[in-house]
UniProtKB/TrEMBL annotation:
Keywords: DNA-binding, Transcription, Transcription regulation. InterPro entries: LysR-type_TF_proteobact-type, LysR_HTH_N, LysR_subst-bd, WH-like_DNA-bd_sf, WH_DNA-bd_sf. One of its GO terms (molecular function) is sequence-specific DNA binding. Residues 1-59 form the HTH lysR-type domain. This is D-malate degradation protein R. The keyword Transcription regulation applies. It comes from Tritonibacter multivorans.
Amino acid sequence: MDLMTGMKTFVAAVETGSFTAAAARMHLSPKLVSKYVGQLEDRLGVRLLHRTTRQLSITSAGQLYYARAAQLIEDLDTLEADVRADVAGLTGTLRLSAPTTFGELHLQPLLLDFAKGHPDLTFDLYLSDRPVDLAEEGFDLAIRIGALRETNMIARRLAQTQLWCVAHTDYLSQYGTPDTIEALCHHRCIRDSNSRSTTAWPFLVDGHSSRIPVDGPFMVNSAQVVRNLALAAQGIGLCPDYVVAEDVQAGRLQRLFPQAETLTLDIHAVFLENRHLPARVRAFVDFVARRLKQQESFARLQDD
C-alpha cells in the first residue's frame, strides 16, 4: 500500500462512517479497506479509528490526521486538475451561487459566454437570495452583494452597484413627485424584503447614512418584481441600478433624486479561506470581473 492510497482510504472511512461504505466509494473490498487503514496506523504508530462490530469512531489522533489528510488530498486533486487544464483545457464542474435577479440578468449571460470557450466544463448554478453555506453545501464560490458578514471567506470585488429610487410617470401624475427624500414617507413604496430593513430606505445625507421611513401595499422578495410593479405604476421602488438602468435610459421609469447620494454596494465573489482555488474557478472569476468592467452600469463606479 502506498501512503496516498492509505490516506484516501482512511478519509473515506471517516467520511462515510464504515469500512463497507468506504469500500463502495473506493471501489475496494471492505477487507482491503480495513487492511489499508491498519497499515496506515502501523506506519504512524498510533490508533486512528476505534472499531466495534457496528460502527467506527475516530480517535483524537485520527481527528488531527483526518483534517490534514483531507486537505492534502484536496490540494493534490486540485493540482492535478490545474496541470491537466494547462494542457487540455478546463474540466470538471463549476458550482456557484448568486442572488436571483443579478444571476438572471447578468451572470447567466456571462456564464453562457464563458461556457462557449470551455466545452469540457459543466456548470451548476444555484440562484437564491439566501446566502448559501459554501462549505456545508459544496459550492466553489458565491456572489455576494452588499456588506460581507462571513469572517471565514476570501473575497474579490467584481463591481459595484447603486440603489436608485424610481417610479413610472403615471404614478407620479396620480400621486405627485416627491421633492425630497423625506417625502417618501407619504408615498406608496414597493419594499424588497431582501433588504436589511423593510420599513426604511438608506440614503446619504450630507455624507452621513440616513434611513427614511417608507410604507406601501407591496412587499416582495425580488428586485425584478419591484421593477415590474414600478413599471405598472403601483408605487415607488428602490432597486439596484443594474435592474432599472435600461428602463431609466429608455424613459420607461423616472429616476427620483438623481443628485442625491445613494447607497453604493460592492459585488464580491467569495471563496472559502485556506483553499487552493481550482483553475476553473480562477478563470471564471477573472472572466466575470473583466466583462463587468466593460459594462457601463458597473464600470462607472469602479476604481481604475
